[in-house]
Structure formats: C-alpha cells, structure tokens
C-alpha cells in the first residue's frame, strides 16, 4: 500500500521535509520513494506541492499521513476536516492511563444516573406545585379599573 507522507531532510535543528509517495512499510528516513510531490520547510513556512499529482495518487489508493493531511487542508490542497494527530508513543501512554479510569467509570455511572433522575423528578414536581399555587391572574379590565388616572 502506498502512503503520502513527510520525509525529513536537512541538518540537525534545521528540519525540512519532502512530501513523497512511498511504500507504507518503508522507513520514513529511507531515501527511496515512488514519487516526489512537494516540499515543506516549517521554519520558513515555505510550502510547495503539486496538488494534481497528490489527488492523482489519492485516486489510485494512496493514503495520506495525518500530519500531512492537516497541512494540505490548511494550505487548500485538500478539502475536509482536520484529523487528530497522536504519536504512537503518546497513544501507548494514554491507553495505560485510561485503563484504570475505565474500571472506575464502569462502577460509578450506575449510581450517578439514579441520583440525577431523582433530582430531575423533584425539580419537575416543584415546578408543578409552583404553577398550581400561583394566584389566578386578574383580567385586564379589572387591572385597568384599579389603576388611578392622573
């Protein structure tokens, strides 16, 4: 499967990227690629890409990396909503943090909705009582007669 993604070039602390079409299993640092479709320099914000060739490769079934998708959408080459980008390292950390939270959440929601339902029912009952106890409104004619004229 083909992938359109960044390939880092440039010196240390001076990143620049090629936008290349490459095999998904190939390393992003490998020098080989199928097609060079653009470049991007994040320091100078210099961006150049051949939108027609990118669309052509997408039409052939190539997938676009999430980071590159967001850049192409921001630059107007692609249309759509941006994609959340999560690195594999952060994803693994977040999964380990979520596991205990899921166990706690599984036990807690059983008690909370009941309390919320009771509170809602009490609020509805209070509202009904308030409307029943409210004095009947006097007709507009009676109000006009009672008001003194100057």
In the predicted model, the low-confidence regions spanning at least 5 consecutive residues are none
Helix proportion range: 40-55%
First-residue to last-residue Cα separation: 89 Å
Given helix and strand content, the structural type is: alpha+beta
CA gyration radius, whole angstroms: 31 Å
User: Mean of residue pLDDT?
Assistant: 78
Total number of distinct structural domains: 2
Number of DSSP E strands: 5
What's the overall geometry?
elongated
Beta fraction: 15-25%
The CATH topology of the largest domain is S16 Ribosomal Protein, Chain: A
Strand order of the largest sheet: 4-3-2-1-5
Question: What's the layout of helices and strands?
Answer:
Blueprint: E1 2-9, E2 16-23, E3 35-41, E4 46-49, H1 51-59, E5 63-64, H2 66-75, H3 88-107, H4 111-133, H5 140-146
Parallel strand pairs: 1-5
Antiparallel strand pairs: 1-2, 2-3, 3-4
Characterization of this structure:
The chain folds into 2 domains: 2-85, S16 Ribosomal Protein, Chain: A; 89-133. The chain is built from 5 helices and 5 strands; from the N terminus they run E-E-E-E-H-E-H-H-H-H. With 150 residues, it is an alpha+beta fold.
List descriptors:
alpha+beta, 5 helices, five-stranded mixed beta sheet, 2 domains, 150 residues, S16 Ribosomal Protein, Chain: A
Summarize the structure.
This protein is an alpha+beta fold and 150 residues long.
């Amino acid at each position: 499967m083909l992938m359109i993604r960044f390939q880092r070039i440039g010196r240390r602390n001076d990143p620049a990227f090629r936008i290349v079409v490459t095999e998904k299993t190939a390393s992003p640092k490998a020098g080989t690629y199928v097609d060079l479709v653009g470049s991007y320099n994040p320091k100078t914000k210099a961006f150049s890409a051949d939108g027609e060739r990118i669309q052509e490769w997408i039409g052939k079934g190539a997938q676009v990396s999430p980071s590159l998708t967001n850049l192409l959408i921001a630059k107007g080459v692609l249309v759509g909503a941006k994609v959340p980008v999560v690195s594999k390292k952060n994803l693994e950390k977040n999964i380990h943090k979520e596991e205990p939270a899921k166990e706690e959440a599984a036990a807690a929601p059983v008690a909370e909705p009941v309390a919320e339902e009771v509170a809602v029912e009490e609020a509805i009952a209070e509202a009904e009582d308030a409307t029943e106890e409210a004095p009947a409104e006097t007709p507009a004619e009676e109000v006009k007669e009672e008001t003194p004229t100057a």
